[in-house]
Fold these 2 entries.
Entry 1:
Amino acid sequence: MWEAAAILFIIVGALLWIDSLRARERAVEAGRSACARYDLQFLDETVSFARLRLARDEEGRLRIVRIYTFEFSETGNNRRNGAIVMLGQDPKDIRLEPYRLQ
């Protein structure tokens, strides 16, 4: 019985890891497109994991919510923070720190 529980735990962990890699790639795409939309520079071409929790979607299903942070710049001389909220594999919200319009 113990072996079956250990194998199940490893399988669930591997599936969560693979799902997280896919969500991270989608978050990078969302951050890149948001920066392009507002004529900003997406710095370091990456996002970093900040938080994980469970929430329900519009249809009432339980989904994993991941929050990723990233940095952007409007001039190239500074760094500002942004965040991407992923509901499952889909970007739900993108937040940008206030920045100066040129």
Entry 2:
Amino acid sequence: MARCLILTVALAVGLRPPAVAQELPTLGEVGDESLSPNQERRLGEQVMVEVRQDPSYLPDPDATEFLNRLGYELVAASQSRHIDFEFFLIRDPMINAFALPGGFIGVHTGTIVTAQGESELASVMAHEIGHVQQRHIARMIAKQKESMAIAIGSILLALLASRAGGQAAEASLAVGQAAALQRQLSFSRDNEREADRVGFDILVNAGFDPRAMAAFFVRMQNGMRIYESIAPAYLRTHPLDVERISDIQGRLRGVRTHQHADSLDFELVRARLRVLQDDSAQGAADAQTYFSDQIRNHTAASELAAYYGLALAQLKLKQARAALDSALTARRSTQGPSAILDKVVNEASFQAARDDNEREAALKSARETAARFPLSRLTAIEYADLLQRMGRNRQAVDYLREQLALTHSDPRYFQMLAVSHAALQQKTLQHQATAEMYLLQGAVPAAVEQLKLARSAADADFYTMSEVDARLRWLNGQIQEARKASGKRSSPDDDGEKGKKLR
């Protein structure tokens, strides 16, 4: 990811590396002192194009929906309600989280798996929201003496490379910015204290237990002592000292605290990510052993979540009947509705089905779950997925278009729509849907290429082809305007090799 990020950052600030770089829209002229909020957002969007292609990026709908729901509960209690945040997961067992420009916040799976409670996870996320609210990345850039492009590149590269360990760090040093990178690997202690204070207020205002922030810091400090010279990943980007801990403990004396009960979805997602953070068969087997031992020894913080985690591990190991038993046991234990829990029951029922009648029953159950949770995209995605797996792609197309009429902002719907159109041999519609997916992910060159493929396929009706042409003209117009704003001359021909890297 490190080398890709260097290219992305260079493009974003208007440098001219070869080939693909010259085809991307740019941010315009970056000022001498700092990024504007709009420039910061656009830079973050372009960095996220690379992040989403990294193997460690985890687009799990269940965990991502929970993470964003929790994140926006915190944002609503902050002074950042005007910022369009996106919270995403990185498949990594190390405890860490990081903020990118423009409101993009990444959380390692290990942060959730090892969290002592929902308030502790909320404290980590509130701290990162604090970095965004206080615009620490833009302020760091303003302090750099090097060129603006190198300053931005070094800082963003440091934020991502620091979580990846030696290989990415070595790649970054090859750019010739070794000294600058070392200075920028961490937020300053002043930045950290400021983010702590903002995050603390957010926790209190959102109704979480602020004592969890102090407890997390103490746990990290104890971990640093245990690791001795090898600091936990969180401490490599978030320098911790006694003063920070004392400051938070002092603030606790000035507020009324209360215990915050963990939500069912937090317990389920924590169990889910224990299974998903190691994608290997051995990882699934280890998770199965872990949850089986918890159930047998009655040591689980939540037996319901342990059965849910066991069901997920069994599904990964192709033990569908056992998974169904575990999932049903978990559902019998719950006292309230849960889309995440119902979803695993439906999946286990479908995989365990021995004939068409049982598969129909599982599909019917998935449809009822989606209707029961109309605001949950993950249940809609599950129902569409089961339709596709049963070969009912026309029905899947109709259902996905119904969902897109409700929300046009989820790239997963367009991705699934493209799959169904491909199965139906509808090439124009396939490429059109893929283009919309790329647009929502910020991959503009790839979207342009897909629209050109849609136009070339020419197997749709006049209305659809007109839509494709209009969308392509609009996108090319946006690219031309961005080039003019950045002082670049536009190429007379926009075809070329644009977007192949992101395809």
